[in-house]
Amino acid sequence: MTPAQRHTGLDEALLNQRKALYEDARRQNPRRWSQNTRNWNRVHTVHLNPDHAETQNNSPQEVVNPNKIAA
Fold this sequence. Notes:
Layout (H helix, E strand, L loop, with lengths): L2 H6 L2 H18 L21 H8 L14
């Protein structure tokens, strides 16, 4: 999914098409699929850097060295 498709609302139609395609392929050849297909549901909240947002909130505070002399 491209950002442009997401912003213009085309993502839902594309996800529905992909879901239908995979369901049809699974019906035609069930032995090919050992598990379920992907979750093709739309994710409503998307983050650009989700890992960065989590680590930013949990980052340790900077340790100040009392022996360090400021110049």
